[in-house]
Design a protein that fits this description.
Length: 153
Amino acid sequence: MPVDPSNLRKIVEHNDRLTENVRVMSEKIAKLKPGKCQQSSDCAIAWAGYVEEVLASVKGQQELSRAMRESARVSDEAQSELFRDRYRFLVDRLKGDVRACFFLLKEYVDLPQDFQRQKTWGDCIYDMEVDLKSLGAISAGETGLASVDALVG
């Protein structure tokens, strides 16, 4: 729910008027003569009314503040989700490129002869898939990689 700028402007203007009215009434109360009870009473009642309006205005400001925080939170989450989607797409694309290159290697590169432990291309493909799956765990969530250096390096 976006915050309405005109509503914000109304609240600010209303608060400015109320603050000025309270200030003027406070000055009038300070200048009252002790013998004029009716005038003092009327002035104090008007001042109390303005103070109650200030209280209502503060409550309105708090509600607007909550709405603004919620709007900012929702916007932040949307941006974060967009970033995660793009990041996941990039990681998935890189994984696909790694798989394609790895399968092409089989046609052009012979595995080294290791007499202790004979590895086949199937074993190497399995190891590559295990490594790629571990990248999925790293890139998940907001605490994932800040750059793709760890994927490329």
